[in-house]
Protein 1
Amino acid sequence: MENVDRPFPPGQYDVVVVGSGPGGLQTSHCLTQLGVEHAVISQDEAPGGMFRRFPIFERLISWTKPDAPVERGTREYEWYDHNSLLGDAGAQALAPEFMDRSFDVPSRAEMEAALVAFTERAGVQVRYGCRWTGTRRDDDGGFVLETDDGEYACRFAVFAIGVTQPWVPSIRGSELAAHYVETRPASSYRDKRVVIIGKRNSAFEVGNGLLPWAKELTLVSPRPVQLELLPQSPLRLRYLQPYEEYVRGGAGTFVVDAAIEQIERSNGGLRVVAEGTTWPGRLEFDADDVILATGFKAPLQDLRELGVTTVLNDRIPALNPFFESISAPGLFFAGNITAGSRGIRKHGVGPNSTSVNGFRYNARVLAEHVAERLGIERPRPSVDRADVVPFLLRELSCAPELWIQKTFLGRVVSVTDGGLRDEGIVPLEHFLDAGGPDAVCVAIEMDPKAVIYPAVYVRRGGRITEHELPTHPVHAFRGSEYAREVEAILAAARF
Ligand SMILES: Cc1cc2nc3c(=O)[nH]c(=O)nc-3n(C[C@H](O)[C@H](O)[C@H](O)COP(=O)(O)OP(=O)(O)OC[C@H]3O[C@@H](n4cnc5c(N)ncnc54)[C@H](O)[C@@H]3O)c2cc1C
């Protein structure tokens, strides 16, 4: 009876995936497509992960265009739809199905509904109500995950456990404030002076949500908003109304660059004491409420004791290009934790791995890599020499993986047995660092001035050459001038 009602009883599996947010669901689907035997467990009672309760003010920042010049459900359409998971026929492009089009971004509830539908239509099975509580290595080089249902032994574990535990830097008096996750309904801030500590998306989301209610709103953190760097920054304009009010000199809304010294009690309320960063001086802000929108960390439990090292103030694990811990092989991470794989950061541009649009492709790369480690080779179709230039230009023009994961994922064609083979989507860092047969890799990149351009990397005799092609005002990288350039690059490399 137990097996019928709840899949994946404790036992031995090749892979165990923890988490039923978009990261866990996408990874499970990709593993299934490749024929990798695995279990999925989650402490939740239903699919959706973080989107079952966040964003607090119920509107996402990532867009989906229900109508596009390409057909819904095609690979090209993914470029227009940043919220749907990647599924087979029937389970593709689900986010637009649930959007009422009052905005170009889904509501939290619409996103949750799309994830529930994906689970049903893609047939993703999850053992809900099963919490991972501890981890140890077994004698065969694998792992045992302890859960409140029993033990799961596996060769590889994939943790898609999200990054939603409150993270607070050391600020004296921070216990007097509430974290983002404890934000109350907006109406309870009516007529209050609210100080929000932080200037990232979650800070501006709360600020934007409280504009109609609070009588005074101040966002404070050391670093300034740098709109000129917007294309390279995770900050989204969607929530920036408080910033606009401030820079236009509107009354009652402030966005201040200052390092917080302490939060203290004062006159029956609170006071935030801060030292200016982009200007000299000290400021004190009286407040009825202080909200810490200082970020989140991954609930890693005992993984550090197994050797998992971390980045970004100990908030997420340090990962290699295939999203495996750099220090504890066999432990993989999916979902927005994949931001721990930093990529080559050429021109300072990092991956887009904290949102669904980017990590859905990371999940596919991870699944293909895990499958190969388990001995399941994926097909590498041959490419005719005459077709290779149009093939690469088509990728540069509209491959969603390349356009969303700029400078991070590339499309590779390699030379093997005298023929050309499509190696699929590959982490650019791996292509550049790992060596291998002669091959070409194309990627979309962004220069320091945020100009988007196509790049071609050629590996010949183990040596890499790099070619940055010109940009185009409407990013039309398929024209004859690009064909000539790519042909010349390949000919010079004797491809
Ligand atoms: C305020 C906020 C707003 C955001 N807005 C957007 C947006 O608009 N668009 C976007 O693309 N991204 C957004 N994100 C990023 C967002 O977190 C991810 O896109 C997405 O939710 C991450 O998916 P995930 O599967 O990695 O993690 P989550 O959705 O957080 O899911 C983690 C899963 O792991 C489970 N889990 C954790 N620990 C255990 C355990 N010990 N045992 C068993 N199960 C466990 C959880 O219960 C959950 O099911 C936002 C993030 C925040 C914090």
Protein 2
Amino acid sequence: MCETTYTVTGMTCGHCASSVSEEVRGIPGVSDVAVDVASGRVTVTSEAPLNVEDVRAAVEEAGYALAAS
Ligand SMILES: [Cu+2]
């Protein structure tokens, strides 16, 4: 299991969090997603390391942006 934390910009409420969570959960291999709206931190648990571009695409699909890290 891998756990990776990303920073997502633009989330303001629980609805934002669930949109991001739903899209990121759609990435193959992802088993859990935890979103902290206040900090913008999104912690993703997956079977194998994820391609950051897949995560970026999912976050953008939800209407938000991945902060540069
Ligand atoms: Cu919102």
